[in-house]
Amino acid sequence: MPGDRRSDAEDRRHRESVRWAKAGAWAGIIGACIAAAVWVVDKVTAEEKPAAATSTPVPGAPSASPSSGSHGVTATAPPAPSTPTAESGYVAKYRDKLLFFPDPLANNQAADLDVPVVGYVEKIDSDDYDVRWEYGTGLTGGHSGFFGTTDSDDPTPGRCAADARERSAGTIEAKDLIPGKSRFCVVTTEGDVAWMKLTRKQGGGSDADRARLTFTTRLWTVNP
After folding, report:
1. Are 198 and 179 in contact (CB under 8 A)?
2. For every residue of 184-216, which 3-state class applies, written as one string?
3. Range in 43-47, 52-56, 128-132, 185-189 the model is least confident about
4. SS3 of 71, please?
5. pTM of this structure
6. Which of 24, 161, 164, 192 has its CA 20 to 30 A from that of 9?
């Protein structure tokens, strides 16, 4: 009958709407489950991330500073090396100066170490020269001051002054002057202190008194 056909059609539509309603409900439930799962995963991941590292000050380490450059560390300069000072009471006037004594046969030679200068004896006032190099005599000190031997290659002025006064050299013959080994300390006519080392001995041959001598010399003057 026509009325029954309408009832069947309406029934089919009703069942279809119910089916879609159920499908929508399930879709909502599934979506909610997925969202909940995502939230749980995000939360767990966030909790597993390591906390940001914080620096712990280390004693003696440079500290951060706003003006410390691109790396944020203030550079600490190393302590300045200590500077050696001259021995109290003396100031170095010259160091390792070469003094040359010529063959003394024609003219005996003398040195005024305070200048310093080397020349024949008659040219230098006898009150000024500190060392003489004489033919037939040898190496000796001046008329004033002190002339002594020393064992040191690098003496302090105080040590050298003591050696000059306490270890008088007297007169050293030419044959006994040995390069590298003959060393002397002098207190000059002006009260300065000199160290002399024979570094070269030339010529002479069978007549050692005619040798030409080269000394490496240092001098300290008294600090006023």
Report:
1. yes
2. EEEECCCCCEEEEEEEEEECCCCCHHHCEEEEE
3. 52-56
4. coil
5. 0.60
6. 24
